[in-house]
Description:
Blueprint: E1 11-21, H1 29-35, E2 36-44, H2 45-52, E3 66-71
Antiparallel strand pairs: 1-2, 1-3
Amino acid sequence: TLSPGSMEEQLLENEWTFYFRRHVPTQTTAEYENSIQKVHSFKSIQGFWSIFNNFPPIESLPPKASVHIMKGSTRPLWED
């Protein structure tokens, strides 16, 4: 059997980034953009799980908070 430390890293084709945002009603566009916080980026399956497994329990997040996974450095914003 392989130990977790000896497993070869499984690279993804692209880098991905987790973002977090607290819901605040009636935000302006600028306030919305400023409320988005980058959590961390990852390039492998192991990187994903090392971040995901350290998220706080869902019940401890504020109501209507959102977590986004975006490709590269793309931020979770609506575009025209």
